[in-house]
Structure formats: structure tokens, C-alpha cells
Design brief:
globular, single chain, mainly alpha, Growth Hormone, Chain: A
């Protein structure tokens, strides 16, 4: 592909999206530039504090448990109160909790505050995904999710390389840096993002039943996707809980891990946009099957790694799985979610990742301590194979994507055309600004 073709592909990938999307994208980028806790918590506890891999796994699991607790509540809050206030509350709370965590020295206190950090940080996810679905047209959503994922990993690539070296001198500086940038995210959301929650008309309320948690849990195909999402997340979590501990056990430093894992973000930054146009027009079933196999066997290859270069090579394999899986699966979740229940559906979907964040550290810590890291990587290969089979079975007969509903179009149009004219932080015409 020529340079001109790459430029044209990049230009077409970023054109036509509403200004509100780009403010949300900016907030995501700032947040990931400060990522520290999720990446370096295991190394902080094992190398700096001297705790065992099992204790590090316990703390990471409590962080995940906090996310499980907040997922459903944040999803309901996103539907009832609105996307914007949920984001502001979640991000502000995260900033203060992360800063507090950096000053904790007692093991019980560290575990308790890690639980609070997990609750606060995870609460923003249903609101972000629901707002993105609100403001972007259906045919552009996979592209928008790809660009948002690109921002996540561009920030992650930068933060991994810098935070790895910061950690060698002061872990506290890393905690305070993440807290500051998360607070900046809350300010961006408060000042620049209007509320996007679609408002139900009286006719819609009369014609359609209210969507509650029972509606979500009875949706068989959606819950099947949630279950498969859990398996995929269980695999990907090992890049941040199992991999750093395994590398530390092999004698590698925090900066070695930082350089190796930065390959993940750099590769996504390099190829996500060129692949965006390809992904949005392909069969999601095939893409999800392929990504599941690449994730499982990419981590499986880690059993043969003995140097930073080989670790980086295995990271390249499962990174390709991330590039394919993330926008495809997020787009599928939005496709299966009703307009006025997006927050609840996204909350349950987010919970699958939170439960995986709870289980994965316990799994990795126990397996590494009692059997060795090679067994952990073999288990990842098995899970990837099971997930691929699940996607093959579950997505047979998936109906084609329906065109945008009039209500969705009415909700998205003002965001696309008027955000610059609206006062900072003011609700956009046609979107609800009060509690339903």
C-alpha cells in the first residue's frame, strides 16, 4: 500500500464523526496517558513492597471486585441520571482514590483502597460506551470504537514506557500522576461534553415496556456474548497480572516489563487506523473467532519466552487479537442493546470484564506459585480455543444490523451539529437532562 493510500485511509477513518465524539476521545487519551495502577500494581506489591505473588493477586482481585460491584450500579445510573454526570462523578472519585492508594502502607489498607479504586474507575465504562453509541451513527460505530481504542493504546504506549522508569525511582509519583490526569479528564467531560441520553417520548413510554435488569439477564444471545467476553478478558488480563509477575520471577526489572508491554500499545497505534475500514465491513463472527484463537495461542507462546525480545514477540501476537476483538465485540454489544437500555446492557457487559479482573489475578497468582508460569500460558491457549468455539455456535443466524431508529437519530443529530454553539456543559436540545 502506498503512502498516499495510507493517508487517504487515515483521513477517511477520522472524517465525519461529531465534535462531541472527539471530546470524548480526548478525555480517553488523557486518562490513558496517566495509566499506572493497573499496569504496575503487581510489580509495586512484589518488588517494592516485598509481598508474594498470591497477595498481589489478592489485591488485584479486590480491585476487580470493586469493578464488579460498581458495574451494574453505574449502568443503571447511566440510564437514569445520564452519561455526563456519571462520568464526572466516576472520574473525580477515581482521582482521589488513586492518590490515596499511593500513601497506603498497611497491607489491609492497600487492599481496601484498591477495592475503592476498582469501584470508581470501572464506573465510567458503561457511560463512555453508551455516550459513544448515542452520538455516533450506527454505520460509523465500529470505526468510532476503533479510534477510541486507538486513543487508549496510544496513551498506554506512552505511559508504559515512561511509568516503567518512574517506578524505578518513585511509585508514589506514578500514583499521583495518574490521579492528576484522571481529574483533568473529569474537567474535560464537565466543560465540553453535553448530555447525550435519548429522552423517551410519552408515546414510546406507552408502547414500550421499561427496560430493567431482568430484561437484560433474560436476553439469551446477549448474555452468551457476555460469557464469551469473560473468557477473552480472562486471557487479556494476564498481560497485566500474570506477565509482570512471571517476568519478575525470571529476573527482569520493571523497566524491562514496561518496554515489553509498550509493544502492545505501539503496535495498536501503528495499525489500528489502517485496519479500521477493513474491520467495519467484515463478518463479526469470523473476526471474533480469529481474535479468540490469536489471544489464546499468543499467550500460550509466552511459555517459550526467555528474553525481552521474545516476550515482545508474543505480545505482538495477542495484540493483533486485541486490535480485531475490541471494536468488533463492542460494536456487537451496542447492536444487541436497545436504545433506552444501553446503560444497563453496557453495565452487564462491563461486569464481565470486572469479574475477569477479579478472577484472573487469583488464577495467575495461584498457578504461578504452585505450578509455574508455563501452566498459566497453557490454560490461556485452552480458553482461547473454547471462546472461538463459543462465538462460532452463538453467532449463527445473527440478524443483520437494523437501521438507526428515529429516536436515536433525533438524539444524535443535535450532538453532531450543535455542540460548538451550546454553552459549555449545557444539555443539548433533544437529550434528557433530568432524572427519569
Amino acid at each position: 500500500m502506498s503512502v498516499a493510500s495510507l493517508r487517504r485511509a487515515a483521513r477517511e477513518s477520522v472524517s465525519g464523526l461529531p465534535p462531541a465524539f472527539w471530546w470524548l476521545w480526548t478525555s480517553t487519551l488523557i486518562n490513558r496517558l496517566g495509566a499506572f495502577v493497573a499496569t504496575f500494581m503487581a510489580l509495586y506489591l512484589t518488588l517494592d513492597r516485598g509481598y508474594s505473588a498470591s497477595y498481589a493477586g489478592l489485591v488485584a482481585s479486590l480491585h476487580g471486585l470493586g469493578g464488579v460491584v460498581s458495574s451494574i450500579g453505574a449502568g443503571i445510573m447511566t440510564d437514569r441520571v445520564g452519561r455526563r454526570p456519571t462520568l464526572v462523578i466516576a472520574q473525580t472519585s477515581t482521582a482521589f482514590a488513586v492518590a490515596l492508594l499511593g500513601f497506603m502502607t498497611d497491607p489491609v489498607a492497600i487492599a481496601g483502597v484498591a477495592f475503592l479504586v476498582g469501584m470508581a474507575s470501572n464506573a465510567s465504562r458503561p457511560a463512555v460506551q453508551a455516550m459513544m453509541a448515542d452520538i455516533v451513527k450506527p454505520e460509523d460505530r465500529v470505526r468510532a470504537f476503533s479510534l477510541n481504542y486507538w486513543a487508549i493504546n496510544m496513551g498506554f504506549a506512552v505511559s508504559s514506557m515512561t511509568a516503567g522508569f518512574i517506578a524505578q525511582y518513585s511509585y508514589l509519583a506514578g500514583f499521583l500522576g495518574e490521579a492528576t490526569l484522571t481529574l483533568v479528564c473529569a474537567v474535560v467531560v464537565f466543560l465540553k461534553l453535553p448530555e447525550s441520553r435519548p429522552q423517551r417520548s410519552a408515546v414510546e413510554r406507552a408502547a414500550e415496556p421499561e427496560i430493567g435488569m431482568g430484561t437484560v439477564l433474560r436476553d439469551g444471545r446477549f448474555m452468551g456474548v457476555v460469557g464469551l467476553s469473560f473468557l477473552i478478558s480472562l486471557i487479556f488480563q494476564q498481560g497485566y497480572v500474570g506477565l509482570p509477575v512471571a517476568m519478575g520471577t525470571d529476573g527482569f526489572s520493571s523497566s524491562d516489563f514496561g518496554l515489553a508491554i509498550a509493544v502492545n500499545g505501539v503496535l495498536i497505534v501503528a495499525v489500528q487506523i489502517p485496519l479500521t475500514r477493513y474491520l467495519q465491513h467484515r463478518d463479526p463472527r469470523r473476526l471474533l473467532i480469529l481474535s479468540s484463537l490469536l489471544a489464546g495461542y499468543g499467550f500460550g507462546l509466552t511459555a517459550f519466552a526467555g528474553s525481552v525480545a521474545v516476550y515482545a514477540l508474543t505480545i505482538c501476537v495477542w495484540t493483533v487479537a486485541e486490535i480485531v476483538n475490541a471494536p468488533t465485540q463492542t460494536g456487537l454489544i451496542v447492536r444487541l442493546s436497545p436504545l433506552h437500555g444501553r446503560g444497563r446492557y453496557q453495565g452487564v457487559y462491563t461486569m464481565s470484564w470486572s469479574v475477569a479482573a477479579l478472577v484472573a489475578p487469583l488464577m495467575s497468582g495461584y498457578v504461578i506459585d504452585h505450578f509455574g508460569a508455563q501452566w498459566l500460558w497453557g490454560a490461556c491457549a485452552v480458553l482461547g480455543t473454547v471462546a472461538a468455539g463459543g462465538y462460532w455456535a452463538l453467532m449463527r443466524g445473527l440478524p443483520p444490523q437494523a437501521p438507526a431508529a428515529p429516536a436515536a437519530a433525533a438524539a444524535a443529530a443535535p450532538v453532531a451539529s450543535k455542540p460548538a454553539a451550546a454553552p459549555a456543559g449545557a444539555p443539548v436540545e433533544g437529550c434528557a437532562g433530568s432524572v427519569a
